[in-house]
Amino acid sequence: MSARRKLILALVAAFSAAQPAAAERLISALSTSRVLITSNFTGADVVLFGSVERDAQTVSRRGGYDIVVTVTGPRETIVTFRKQRVAGIWVNADQRTFVKAPSYLTVLANRTINDIADVNTLRRTQTGLARILLPQEISGDIADSIRDDPFRLAFLRLKIDQKLYGEQQNGVTFLTPALFRASIPIPDNAPTGSYEVDVKLFADGAMLARTQTALEVVKVGFEQLVANGARDHGLLYGLITAAMALLTGWLASVVFRKD
Amino acid sequence: MQIYLPIAELPVNVLLILFMGLAVGFISGMFGIGGGFLMTPLLIFIGIAPAVAVASVASHVAASSFSGAISYWRRRALDPALAMMLLIAGLIGTTAGVWLFTLLRKLGQLDLTIAVSYLLLLSIVGGMMITESVRAILRARGGRPAEIRRPGSHLWIHGLPLKMRFKVSKIYVSVIPIWTIGFIIGFIGAVMGIGGGFLLVPALIYLIRVPTGVVIGTSMVLTLVTMAYATIIHAATNHLVDALLALLLMTGGVIGAQFGARAGQRFSGEQLRLLLGVLVLSVGLRFAYDLVVQPTDLFSMRTIEEQQ
Questions:
Q1: ipTM of the modeled complex
Q2: Domain count of chain B?
Q3: What is the pTM of this model?
């Protein structure tokens, strides 16, 4: 199915859904819903198109529309360590466990997120990288820490360094006052699994509409074969790898035999 | 030329990996060591997860050692009886080591244990090898030939019971110290994720008095079997062996090992021990540097559980 046909289908589906009158409707579609990891995969870009639909009763918005796209990858539990000098050597003295944190997180907006709405609205709707909930396990309880907690800041920084987290305040482009596009970067180290794409529409500092879609990052072909083999038939896979090692070693000694 | 690794889940440069395999293979062929203690840190440095690196390096080491062991076998520079005795104890040691590895990981102190044991082992072994070989070289320079049977060479070890004659090595020695060495190498190898060749070679030379020419080939047989065993165990339990990464590493590794084995023949036993001592000590000092100097980033992170 071509991207254009998908877009049309998505638009038709959105129109047919009953929505309260007088409010904007948000429609979006992705250029592809499956990112394929092949042996020459070095990252990809998924393009999101969207449109803000108005009807006759819709009030006019003086400030124009704002769009924030949040893409969340599969969740995982991550431990962050802090080193400290103990008896002259640097050891991991302190640690925090981030429970079910997104393995991948990208926030795209059409302008500076702090200008889009006030802090409370942004916090309530978890808009922007700094306001995403990151629950930590603290002595058995699970709670999110304060925003400038050093472990939380270090976690975000390390993820940004790995290109798995990111925020682009000019990542959404309005093609017309109601039509927008955004490019979602999928880095080469992106984990496989399901990615949620959450699109929020703001105007005059308030969130008006929200729509969700998803994309999937999957291994195909040889990559899929090897990954499935390693997971489902571990012992056989190990035996084959060990046999491959012996064969390679033997071949080299035959090829390089001097007499 | 980039290729995506299916288990490590990131693309790498094919030529870079081949070259790394070649370089480490050369060193392993020359000194008769597996090279795991060099390759694992290199892979972690280019961004591969430590667990995947340790598991995949095992098969690379197995391939390099097999290719090396065959060339030593052809020159009869290998003692099959001695290798068999070391193996029996080595596999028991590996199993015990895997058990401790799991326990330490549960306690959350695995990384520190590995770093400190690397530092202590490599520095002590490297320092001892350098001192001994420099002495031997100076003695040879001074006109006195290196003594094959020195006065002090009959240690208490040689008084132990259960003696066995090893024809190729031309030694008559108790199997108790041989089993002890095999067990310790297997145990340390499993805990630290290394083949243990750099420990086995000096242990056989200094404690059992095995001739240097036979030691390397014999050590390779032990490394080969324990690493092939480790590959299978890692694949069956942790599912972390990246076959594509392993294939690239071993292709470079076996070619490098062939050239290394030939290069090794040009040096005397003392010179080889000095070179290996310098190499082992410098890796040990590298670990010391990391432990003592304040790291640029105090924070690090590790994924412990993935959810789909």
A1: 0.79
A2: 1
A3: 0.75
